[in-house]
Amino acid sequence: MTQFVIHREIDARGSACPGPLMELIRALKAAEKGQVVAVISSDQGSKVDIPEWVAKAGHALLATEDAGGATRFVVQKAR
Amino acid sequence: MHDVVIVGGGVGGTVTANLLAEELAPELAAGRVRLRLITDRPEHVYKPAFLYRAFGRTSPAAYRRPQRELLHPAVQLVVDPVRTVDVAQRRVTCASGQSYIYTYLVLAPGARVVPERTPGLVEAGEQFYTEEGSARLYRRLERFEKGTVVVSVIGVPHMCPVAPLEMAFMLDAFFRERGRRDQVEIVYTYPINRVHSNPAIAEWAAPQLVQRGIRVETFFNVERIDPEQKTIATLEGAELAFDLLIGIPEHAAPAFLEESGLTVDGWVPTDRHTLAVKGHDNAYALGDVTDLPVSKAGSVAHYQASTVAANIAAHVRGLPAAARYNGKTFCFIETGTERATYVEFDYDHPPQPVRASRWVHWAKLAYNQAYWLTARGVV
User: Under 8 Å CB-to-CB from B10, ≥6 apart: which residues?
Assistant: First the structure.
């Protein structure tokens, strides 16, 4: 697993789509520019939704990692 | 003596109280059970009417009833806002200072809107999730001659998940009926990359919006609103101008639940099947206040009330609490001012909207009247 200084990590496993994406959006809204937020999702839709939103919003997807059957998205607030 | 305290005078609390009064009639008559419903207002309000109020199609007399009239005579009604719930002491304390000890607790106080959490929304936005808001919106719509109306879903989750779509469809019909549609642009915005959180409803609704000439903006997360310039700025860096903003605000559980330490991330952690508050086997939650991935809709609270009432009745009789909620949800969807469709789904079966028709629209209007039988626990 890649090492980043994570400002906040959200375990959204078990939350159905679009729960994990909305959790990430809420966390990034509250974060400062440059801070890193991670969200763990077990929802398959997140694999499409989260990278797509991160790109549209102009943030940086630092890593997409396996997290014991779920996926951990590491995102840096870029603006 | 078993003391059952139900907090909330909406559909969930009222139906639970009435079902328990019927089921536990022998125990109530023998003085072995006491049923109390605590609410913050003496009148019961049918909130789905607010959508119609925004278009001048209903009035307070149609959607208000005295709470006492809706309750079984065996249910004690307490009109006194709850201030704290102490689960360690099993005690509910109200604004008057009066406390009530419970054996079993039901939390059904609903959700509230918190538009103040979005900068500029209180100053610049209208909404139809409160009685005052819907009445004010109607006055604005009646005078609105031309310009851009934006229906923006700002907070998710929110009450009645299909209502923003219904608002967009009804706005289209409203302005067509008045011959002003060509002067009015309607824009619908949603936070994720489709028009509704439920994929099946989104797939059905997207072409309906296009067909009506309603512009759609997705991945649209409102960051702030400039009341002077009448613009919305999003987290995605977009800017959208409006003449009339109908914003679906962020929602939250009542403050007393958060202050009592009963919420996690804003909602009450609830077992998806038994509806017990997690970590508290003698407390149940239902309706808008739970953290469950189900619609914050009246039908959900109605169906959940059956589960909660059955489980509490079982506890009282020393039996296992075996009733389970399966995620059942039913929602009508108005597709204009003369047609409607509906969706029915549960945890395991996604919704399948049917073709909109006049019959379903009339069924919805009929249900708005029949609701009072639902609240009484009759249907």
Answer: B44, B45, B47, B108, B109, B110, B287, B288, B298, B301
Task: Determine if the pTM surpasses 0.80.
Answer: yes
In chain A the domains, ranked by start, together with CATH numbers, are 8-76 (3.30.110.40)
Provide the ipTM: 0.84
Q: Is A57 on the interface with B (CB under 8 A)?
A: yes
Active site residue A2: no
What pLDDT is recorded for position B347?
Answer: 87
Quick check: B120 and B226 in contact, CB under 8 A? yes
In the DSSP assignment, the letter for residue B88 is T
Cis peptide bond upstream of B42, omega within 30: no
Distance from CA of B73 to the nearest CA of A (A): 41
How far, in Å, CA of B21 to CA of B30, rounded? 13
Cβ neighbours of residue B247 closer than 8 Å, sequence gap 6 or more: B115, B118, B121, B125, B126, B127, B152, B154, B222, B225
**B133 and B255 in contact (C-beta within 8 Å)?**
no
Q: Is B115-250 in CATH node 3.50.50.60?
A: yes
Gap from A66 CA to chain B (nearest CA, Å): 23
What burial letters (b/e) apply to B275-290, b meaning 16+ CB within 10 Å? bbbeebeebbbbbbbb
Q: Does A39 touch chain B (CB under 8 A)?
A: no
Give the Cα-Cα-Cα angle B54, B59, B61 (nearest 5 degrees): 150
Under DSSP, is residue B277 helix (H, G, I), strand (E, B) or coil?
strand
Phi, psi of B187 (to 5 degrees): -120, 135
Tell which wins on pLDDT, B53 or A43. Answer: B53
The answer to whether residues B337 and B170 touch, using CB atoms and an 8 Å cutoff, is yes
DSSP B183: G
Can you read off the two tokens belonging to residue B334? Answer: 């108005």
Q: According to the CATH classification, is domain B2-111+253-328 in 3.50.50.60?
A: yes
